[in-house]
Design brief:
Shape: globular
Distance between the termini: 49 Å
Pfam families: Bac_globin
Number of strands: 0
Protein name: Globin
CATH architecture: Orthogonal Bundle
Order of helices and strands: HHHHHHHH
Largest sheet: none
Number of domains: 1
GO molecular function, one term: oxygen carrier activity
CATH class: Mainly Alpha
Number of helices: 8
Structural class: mainly alpha
InterPro entries: GlbO/GLB3-like, Globin-like_sf, Globin/Proto, Hemoglobin_trunc
Low-confidence stretches: none
Strand content: under 5%
Mean pLDDT: 92
Family: Belongs to the truncated hemoglobin family. Group II subfamily.
CATH superfamily: Globins
């Protein structure tokens, strides 16, 4: 493994296995959250697969998402869903809980969540109360 590969967030997190475990811990929390659950289909497996591919790529791992689905264009892909600041906060909270559940060190969790905040709030497309 090259020096660059060892220094990606993906590798620091523990690679594919850890990303998969985070996704598997995350979605049960999302489906129990009254703000988030209505936005997701009953068959959550395809969503989980896409999230695994996206997070792997987002954190510097293999370009799994782009290889299968093209450029992520995540804001555009989320425009069909009413995303409020409150929902972005709920999403981040579920992700924080999932990262803690899988045992990521606090400092790494905080860094990863800071990276995800930019995306989460970029997806906001609906004022509160709508």
């Amino acid at each position: 493994m090259s020096e660059q590969e060892r220094n990606t967030l993906f590798e620091l997190m523990g690679g594919a296995e850890t990303v998969r475990r985070i996704v598997e811990a995350f979605y049960p929390k999302v489906l129990k959250n009254p703000l988030l659950a209505p936005l997701f289909p009953s068959d959550i497996e395809p969503v989980m697969d896409k999230q695994y591919m996206f997070l792997s790529q987002f954190f510097g791992g293999p370009t799994l998402y782009s290889d299968v689905h093209g450029h992520p264009m995540m804001r555009g892909r989320h425009m069909a869903f009413p995303i409020t600041v409150e929902r972005a906060d709920a999403w981040l909270s579920c992700m924080a809980e999932a990262m803690e559940e899988v045992g990521l060190p606090q400092e790494l969790r905080e860094f990863l969540l800071q990276r995800l905040k930019g995306s989460a709030y970029h997806f906001v497309n609906t004022p509160e109360g709508e």
